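User: Second chain of the day. Same drill as before.
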Amino acid sequence: MIRSSLESKIYILQRTLSGYQLDLRPSRTRTRWLRTRCRVSTQLSFRRRSVALVALAVLVLLGILAVRARGTSFDWNLFLSTVRHVSWSWLIAAILLMLLTYVGRALRWEVMLRPLGRQVSLARLTSDTAIGFMAATLLGRVGELVRPYLISASAGVSFSSQLAAWLLERVLDLLAVLLIFGFALARVSSQGLNLGPGLRWTLHAGGYVAGIAGLLCFAILMAFRNIGEFTRKRIMGGLSFLPAKYYIRSNKMLSAFSQGAQVTRNPSWLTLLAIYTALEWVLITASYAALLRCFTATRALKITDVVTILGFIAFGSIIQIPGIGGGLQITAIVVLTEVYRLSLESASGIALFIWVLTLLVVVPVGLACALGQRMNWRKIRQLATEALPKEEELA
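Assistant: Same format as last time:
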């Protein structure tokens, strides 16, 4: 038995060493290979984003054709009136509250850096956060890697550990969205609104999807807490059948997640994460409440109505709901017209401002922060392309 165990360990070691030997390349050749891979991945990302924009334009065109086919015309005067007659004081308040949410995100990320023994100023974390969200808005998926990449450079830690922190942040936000969406579903069901059969089926399906997503988030949080050094070794022992290349990548991934997930094993730090997550979504709710106060059609809505609208919009922006299709604008229009009986023109104008508030407000702030760090647009794109192959190696 002892002999067989030793032979298996020697076999795994030989396969690992052979993997290193096979992966050896001259430094210039490997650098050229990585650059080519970055360029191809970035081009594919931009192509996917272009396809998404074209698809969105097609959906808008089909929507206009469907409205005309029903014999109703889109009243552009009413739409422009909704856009023009905006309360600027409430709009400024909504923008300021939304910008404060990025400070809340920086505070939460500072907690996730504590187990690594690194301290970064709140101003620098807020700047990196704004630049990251600006890059995600303008570059798409590849831009989402800019924020953990910048923070890893600012804190002097590995990018893989911050990628784990980024995933933990996503899980916490998704849990908050599911709670708000659950409140929205319960409130719509209790009001007994006369909804169409398609939207009613969609809401039921969305409830099941939210429940499954909540269970998955809880499982991921438990996995974060349990990925310690002992668990990592046990998992890697069970993955010894993998080829050397994938065995090494799995080991890197588990090590990175174990390092980045240490914050979940401390009850006080985990409590702080929950408090900052709640604070962030309170600010988002207040921002939406101020925005809806800008328009005559939604000025009389109560705070429970604001939370209901936010729940549908937040859930629809991350999950493709059958019958709605996902996306901020489409979800906002459907909720405002079907649940709150607003006209299509008024709902479209409000949805436009919701889109600007949620996605575009951070862009000028992110550009200003990038200039403050002496970065231009070319440098930001370069950071994204440098982070992409590292993320792919861990995935």
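The two ends are 36 Å apart (CA to CA).

User: Great, on to the next one.
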